[in-house]
Amino acid sequence: MNHSAELSTSEKMAPEEFDGGTAVACVILGLSFLVGAPGNLLVIWTILRHVKQRSHTVILILHLAAADLLVLITLPLWIYSLAHSWVFGEASCKAMVFMINVCMYSSVFLITLMSVERFVAVRYPFASLDWKRKQALNKVLLALWTAAFLFSIPVIPTQVVGQDSDGEHCLYRLYTSVAQELVCVLLETLVGYVIPFSILVVCYGCLCSRITQMTFKSKRKSTVLIASIVVAFGICWTPYHIGNILSLIVLAIENSFHDAAQSLESVRSTMAFIAGAMVFISSTVNPILYMFAARSFRSSLRDTGIQKLFRHISSTSPGEGNREMSFVSKRQSNQTNSSLCASEPKDQMNILIKMCENNPS
């Protein structure tokens, strides 16, 4: 979310330090664009073109791919501005960073919602079926994207184009006070990481014992796929928010422990480039995970594995108990029918005996 601060420090960098970091950042961002943009486009095209009956999980994956794609298509502009300078004006800088923040917040919320839905589907299948019947997903998605827009609003007044020895760059946040910076960074860390990640840990902590016990292989496969998305989210976002936490500590101790605050700020500045690049990698990694999960589904050139993967997820989501409940109901029905069939011959014999007793020869 604070993608400007990811690639800069609160103070201006030395030119040679900036050049080295820029080269690494440009390479990572370029690879992220080349891999992630086509990958997310493929996911969107596959779902819209080949998956007619879309489950809630597949719809959430579709929204996640769209949010990631919107982030990735801005990378050529970032690469150009890092290699040269920002020439698009401050208004476009604010607009682009705002859009990236919206998409990043929505990605976090979508992954969290996907995990909660998976938890409910596995642990409480009847509640999951009720959620499906009520068709509440559209309302939840509207609320989710609205929340992403609202939480991104602080970017608009604070994002600025800063001047350094290499020219202008859209890499800085300008806060009017320490209190404003504290609130903005704390809000971003809590809403964008701490609360969602806590929910994810609780959901998958409760599901760990159930994943290996699942009856249907398809149920286990889709649950493990979503778990891998969650793990990738944690790996990609944790360094960035560690930097945010270090910023909060620096703000808290800079007056009383100035030397310690300077040391922490130096550490945060050093990891800023890597943390920023990993945030963009998070928008690239999901299609790769789908490809790995789809390897066992590929049956022909016309019907690719990723198509069958999303169809499979749709057939087993959102209530993984669908098949089990139908199986149980069929089994109960068969038992009832067999008991009726077994009782019919006995009833017929009793009738014959009574007829013989009433009509002796």
TrEMBL record:
Which Gene Ontology MF annotations are present?
Answer: C-C chemokine binding; C-C chemokine receptor activity; leukotriene receptor activity
| Gene3D superfamilies membership | Rhodopsin 7-helix transmembrane proteins
- What are the BP-aspect GO terms? calcium-mediated signaling; cell chemotaxis; immune response; positive regulation of cytosolic calcium ion concentration
Q: What are the TM regions of this chain, as residue ranges?
A: 20-48, 60-83, 95-116, 136-156, 190-212, 224-253, 273-293
Q: Where is the composition biased (Polar residues)?
A: 329-341
Q: Does the keyword Cell membrane apply?
A: yes
Q: Where is the G-protein coupled receptors family 1 profile domain?
A: 39-290
Output the InterPro entries linked to this UniProt entry.
CCR1-9-like, GPCR_Rhodpsn, GPCR_Rhodpsn_7TM
Q: Which family does it belong to?
A: Belongs to the G-protein coupled receptor 1 family.
Q: What is this protein called?
A: G-protein coupled receptors family 1 profile domain-containing protein
List the top taxonomic levels of the source. Answer: Eukaryota, Metazoa, Chordata, Craniata, Vertebrata
